[in-house]
Amino acid sequence: MAVAPPHLFLPNMPPPPTTSAVATTSPPPPPLTQDELKRMAAHRAVEYVKSGMVLGLGTGSTAVHAIRRIGDLLREGKLTGVVGIPTSKMTEEQATEAGIPLSDLESHPSVDLAIDGADEVDPQLNLVKGRGGSLLREKMIEGACETFVVIVDESKLVDHIGGTGLALPVEVIPFCCNFTVERLRELFPDSGCRAELRRVGEKQVPFVTDNGNYIVNLYFERDFGDLNEASDRILRIPGVVEHGMFLGMATTLIVAGKLGVTVKEKSELAG
Ligand SMILES: O=C(CO)[C@H](O)[C@H](O)COP(=O)(O)O
């Protein structure tokens, strides 16, 4: 049976021997980087991929590890016949580079499995996504899949989504976007809500999504209450296309942390 490396305890593996002289004289290995943790979570998720599946391919620095891993397995002949549906133009490029055959939701309206990262995950597997700006395509594709595996390093775990002071992204159409920003700002007066159009570059031009839209970042000083109610209120504003709360969509959560990788299934949640 494999033995866990000294810096990492993995479930189902015996701990490393502790009595050797090496253990007392060697310097401890450096801690795993955040990127190594992301890769561990992604590789664990790819174990869910089977030949012939239609796959939703996520966007971001965690999802790219899954894309590369799937590409490697295809090249090695360990996976065959998979088709990927990319959730962004960036993912499309990465998947093409990895050699994954691509399709879209019109040709493949039901997706077997999607793998994607997240910005925040609460204990009920509700997510904030879209700080990378791809929330609309992600929500369309991940909403069409049977199994949605979320992969994160442990820094993404929160008690309440939207309660970290970091952005909850909302995709809006460019037409009179400042009007929409104001409407969003007024929406949660008791929660200290701040709404800002996302801007990029030296000239601070609006960030443009793959769909030609803009992103408004919402920041909350205090809890904004029921998530489904907040979702409905945001979506009722004309000019809003979609928001980055993914409620009840994730079926599996894979978290990589300093103590190893853990897997949580939605079906195991109480209530
Ligand atoms: O929702 C997303 C992009 O729209 C990403 O999944 C999310 O931002 C997490 O990204 P990363 O894995 O780079 O931390």
Distance between the termini: 38 Å
Order of helices and strands: HHEHEHEEEHEEHEEEEHEEEE
The domain tally reads 2
Provide a count of the helices. Answer: 7
DSSP E strands, number: 15
| Strand order across the largest sheet | 2-1-3-6-14-15
Q: What helical percentage do the residues reach?
A: 10-25%
Radius of gyration, taken over Cα atoms and rounded to an integer in Å: 20 Å
Cofactors, ions and other ligands in the entry: ribulose-5-phosphate
Reported for the largest beta sheet, the result is: 6 strands, mixed
List the main descriptive attributes of the protein structure presented here.
single chain; 271 residues; alpha/beta; Rossmann fold; Alpha-Beta Plaits; 4-stranded antiparallel β-sheet; 7 helices; 25% helix; binds ribulose-5-phosphate; ribose-5-phosphate isomerase activity; NagB/RpiA_transferase-like; EC 5.3.1.6
Task: Summarize this entry quickly.
25% of the residues lie in helices and 24% in strands. The protein is an alpha/beta fold and 271 residues long.
Commentary on this structure:
The chain has helices at 21-25, 34-46, 63-75, 89-98, 135-142, 177-185, 227-235; strands at 54-57, 83-86, 111-116, 120-121, 127-128, 145-153, 168-172, 194-197, 199-200, 205-206, 214-219, 240-243, 245-246, 252-257, 260-265. By secondary structure, it is α/β, with parallel strands linked by helices. The chain folds into two domains: 34-154 and 248-258, Rossmann fold (3-Layer(aba) Sandwich), CATH 3.40.50.1360; 168-239, ACT domain (Alpha-Beta Plaits, 2-Layer Sandwich), CATH 3.30.70.260. The chain has a six-stranded mixed β-sheet with strand order 2-1-3-6-14-15, sandwiched between helices. Strands 8-11-7-12 form a four-stranded antiparallel β-sheet, covered by helices on one side. Strand 9 (199-200) and strand 10 (205-206) form a beta hairpin. Ribulose-5-phosphate binds next to helix 5.
